[in-house]
Amino acid sequence: MLRQVRRAVELTPPERDRYVDLLRALAITMVVLGHWLVVAVTYSDDDGLDGFSALATVPWSRPLTWLFQVMPLFFLVGGYVNGASFDGRRRDGGDAAGWLLRRAGRLLGPTTVFVVTVAGCALVARLLGADPELVGTAGWLVAIPLWFLTAYLVVVVLTPLLYPLHRRAGWLVVAVLVGGVAVADTARFAFDVEQVAYANYLLVWLAVHQVGFLWRDGRLPGRTGAAVLTVAALLALLWCTVVGPYPVSMVTVPGEEVQNTAPPTLALLSLAATQTGLALLLRPPVERWLRGRRPWTLVVAVNLVALTVFLWHMAAVVVAAGVLYPPGLLPQPAVGSAEWLLWRVPWLGCLLVVLLVLVLVFGPAERGLPLPRGAEDTAEGRGAGGVRLRGVRPAVTCVGLGLAVAGLLGITVSGPEDHGPFGLPGAALLAYLVGIGALWLLPRGRAD
C-alpha cells in the first residue's frame, strides 16, 4: 500500500483538484470518528455484550453533531466529481450505461466483498452456536454505513438524467428541490402528514449533489459571497433548531420523535449550506497548504482506501468490543462522565488498530466491478447534448443496479430482529446478490 501511495503522489497531475480530494478524505474521517466516539458499549455476565448511542443519555453532546455530520459535504464533493466525470464522458461521446457501471462499480466492488464477508461470518457464528440475537445485533451494527452508500448510489444512478437538466436550468433545479423539501417539511410539521416527508430522503441529497455540479462549473460565489452564505445558512440553522421544530442533533438520537436525518429536513439542508460556504471560504489557504508533499501524501493515503475505511469502521467496533469488554480490559464508567471521556482515547486507539488490519485485508477490493464492453468510449454521439444508452444491454444494467440499490435499502431499513442467519435480512441480501450477479455477467471490457 505504501508503494501505491508514493506512486500516486508522484503521478499527481498539476491540474488535479487536491482540495476536493481533501474534502472527501475529511468527510470520511469525521464520520468514522463521530461513530466511534458516540458508541457506548456495555457488558455484564447476565446480559452479555450490548451498546447504545451516547447521544441518547448525554444531551450536551448533540450540538457537536454539527461538526461530525459531514455527509452533506460528501454529496457536495460527489456532485463536483460526478459532474466532471459525466461531462467528460458526454463530450467524448461515451455511453451512459458504461459511465454508470464505471462509477457504480467502484462502489459496488468493495461493498460486495463487505456484504458477502458479513453474511459468511454471521452464518459461521450461528453454526458454532452463537446467540441469534447477538448475531443479528452485530450484523445490524456493522451494516449501519450502508445507508449512506444507498443514498449516494441513487444520486449516481440519476446523474445521467439530472446533469443534462443542470446544464439547461442550473440553479432552478436546486431551487425546485429545496422547495420540495420545504413543502414536505410543512406537510410533516404543520399538517402531521409524515409520509410526504419521506421524499426528503431523495430531495435533500439530490439538492446538495446538484450544488456540486454548480461548484464544478464555477457558478458558486467567491469569498465575499461565501462569507454571506455561511453566516446566512448558520443563522437559518440556529432558527430551525432553536425557534423551529427541528432537534439540535444532526444525526439520529434513539428515542427522539423527530430526527434530522430520518427523514432529512430543512435543518440538515441549512447545515449543508453552512458547510458549502465554509468550504468555499477556506479553499485558497488550504490549497496552498496542499502543495506540500506531506499533507498531500496523507490525503492520497486516505482516499486510496476511503470506501474500505467507511464500510468496515463499525465492524472494528464489533471486533474491539468483543475482545476488550468481556475480559474487563476496558472499564465501564458512567457515560458522559469525565472518566468516560478520558477512556475514549484508548478506545479510539484500539479501534484504529483493528481498522488498520481490516484495511490491509480488504483494501485491495477497491478496484471496482469488471466493465462490460459497452463501457468503452465510442465515437458516436460526440458533441451531443447527452450520452446515449447504447453499446451495452441497458436493461440489464438498469435492473442490476436497481436490484443492488433495493437490496442495500432493505438492509438499511431493517432492525436487528430482521437480521437472520446471515446477519443481514434474507430477502434484501438475495436482491443485492442477484443484482450484482447480473452486472458481473455482462461481457467484460477494458479497465477504465
Helix-strand blueprint:
Layout: H1 2-10, H2 18-38, E1 39-44, E2 48-53, H3 65-68, H4 71-91, H5 96-127, H6 132-142, H7 146-169, H8 171-190, H9 200-216, H10 223-243, H11 266-289, H12 293-304, H13 306-324, H14 338-362, H15 394-413, H16 426-440
Antiparallel strand pairs: 1-2
Helix pairs in contact: 1-12, 2-4, 2-12, 2-13, 4-7, 4-9, 4-11, 5-6, 5-7, 5-13, 5-15, 5-16, 7-9, 7-15, 8-9, 10-11, 13-14, 15-16
Please, could you describe this protein's structure?
This protein has 448 residues and is mainly α. Helix content is 66%, strand content 3%. Strands 1-2 form a two-stranded antiparallel sheet. α4 (71-91) crosses α9.
Features:
mainly alpha; two-stranded antiparallel ribbon
- Provide the structure class: mainly alpha
Could you tell me the radius of gyration in angstroms? 22 Å
Could you give the distance between the termini? 21 Å
Summed over residues and divided by their number, the pLDDT gives a mean of 88
Order of helices and strands: HHEEHHHHHHHHHHHHHH
Number of strands: 2
- Order of adjacent strands in the largest pleated sheet: 1-2
Globally, the shape reads globular
The largest sheet is: 2 strands, antiparallel
Q: Provide a count of the helices.
A: 16
Please mark out the parts with pLDDT under 50 across 5 or more consecutive residues, or reply none: 371-392, 444-448
Helical content, roughly? Answer: 55-70%
Beta-strand portion reads: under 5%
